[in-house]
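Input record, target 12 of the design panel.
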């Protein structure tokens, strides 16, 4: 268990690392830069270690690998339980690699390389060699998440990817939330607030998409939900899963999560962006705090991940020659959200 001295040390470490996070001035600069200029800037800010990227997908992978290095370095300042929590957080990048591999196999897209995967470059060989999703899933029989995949090997319709991704998310976030119970009181509260909110949002988007686009049965909607949210536990999720779409939207619209269904509510892009902005606004103070708990660590990781997303949006916007004003509308860190 990490004590006050441990958290003082890691908080000092994060205060140093935070100096390289993108500020409002940095955003304004890079929005006016070319892609090569942005890469040079990011290298100076220690977001990347190289500026030689032939594909934007490889840049995204590299940005995440650099963050993982920093997360592992933070673990050296923490006790064993907090190192385990850090490992569990990092595991999400492996889960994303699994999703990417399955998606590429299902869509018969072999235009990938080892550098397409953040944690598991060995998946590249499996994607190329395995002829179908079933064979790939069988190759993961020794992994902790295999039991969440094996039941879907016989599903061949367009819902397969959706089911698999929901199952992997359920495995990952349930594990993290459950592990939070082992932390000390202050850290447990911070971690459960953050991950519980993420779980709530994922569940609500899942239920909406299942009803709106996939006509999934109520029982399946409930069974695929993550039963460890902050505001919506199993009983609440059961009620929501049984509602028709309009009643579900009306019900959620009255909660703190009502923003999900305002504006262009039919687009995944809108919902994803608004989810991230909500999380940024809700947990930005974690980064600024200095309490003897895991809050500052979680705040740093959260803001860093959002800045990676913004970097990729900006780089892609430059690729398509988008106007700066239009591009800003797709950023998580815009306006008052930016670091001063």
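The sequence produced for target 12 reads:
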């Amino acid at each position: 268990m990490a004590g006050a001295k441990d958290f003082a040390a890691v908080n000092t470490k994060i205060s140093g690392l935070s100096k390289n996070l993108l500020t409002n001035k940095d955003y304004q600069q890079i929005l006016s830069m070319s892609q090569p200029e942005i890469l040079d800037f990011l290298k100076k800010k220690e977001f990347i270690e190289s500026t030689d990227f032939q594909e934007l997908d490889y840049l995204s992978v590299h940005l995440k690998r650099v963050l993982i290095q920093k997360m592992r370095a933070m673990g050296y300042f923490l006790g064993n339980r907090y190192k385990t929590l850090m490992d569990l957080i990092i595991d999400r990048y492996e889960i994303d690699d699994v999703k990417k591999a399955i998606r590429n196999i299902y869509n018969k897209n072999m235009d990938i390389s080892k550098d397409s995967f953040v944690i598991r470059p060995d998946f590249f060989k499996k994607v190329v060699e395995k002829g179908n999703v079933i064979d790939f899933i069988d190759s993961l029989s020794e992994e902790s998440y295999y039991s969440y995949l094996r039941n879907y090997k016989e599903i061949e319709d367009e819902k397969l990817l959706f089911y698999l991704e929901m199952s992997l998310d359920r495995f990952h976030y349930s594990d993290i939330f459950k592990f939070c119970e082992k932390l000390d009181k202050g850290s447990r509260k911070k971690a459960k607030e953050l991950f519980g909110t993420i779980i709530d949002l994922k569940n609500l988007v899942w239920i909406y998409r299942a009803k709106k686009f996939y006509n999934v049965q109520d029982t399946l909607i409930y069974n695929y939900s993550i039963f460890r949210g902050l505001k919506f536990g199993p009983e609440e999720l059961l009620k929501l899963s049984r509602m028709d779409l309009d009643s579900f939207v009306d019900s959620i619209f009255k909660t703190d999560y009502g923003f999900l269904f305002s504006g262009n509510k039919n687009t995944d892009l809108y919902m994803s962006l608004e989810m991230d902005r909500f999380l940024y606004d809700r947990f930005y103070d974690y980064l600024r705090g200095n309490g003897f708990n895991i809050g500052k660590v979680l705040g740093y990781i959260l803001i860093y991940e959002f800045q990676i997303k913004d970097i990729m949006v900006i780089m892609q916007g430059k690729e398509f020659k988008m106007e700066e004003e239009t591009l800003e509308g797709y950023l998580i860190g815009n306006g008052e959200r930016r670091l001063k």
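The two ends are 33 Å apart (CA to CA).
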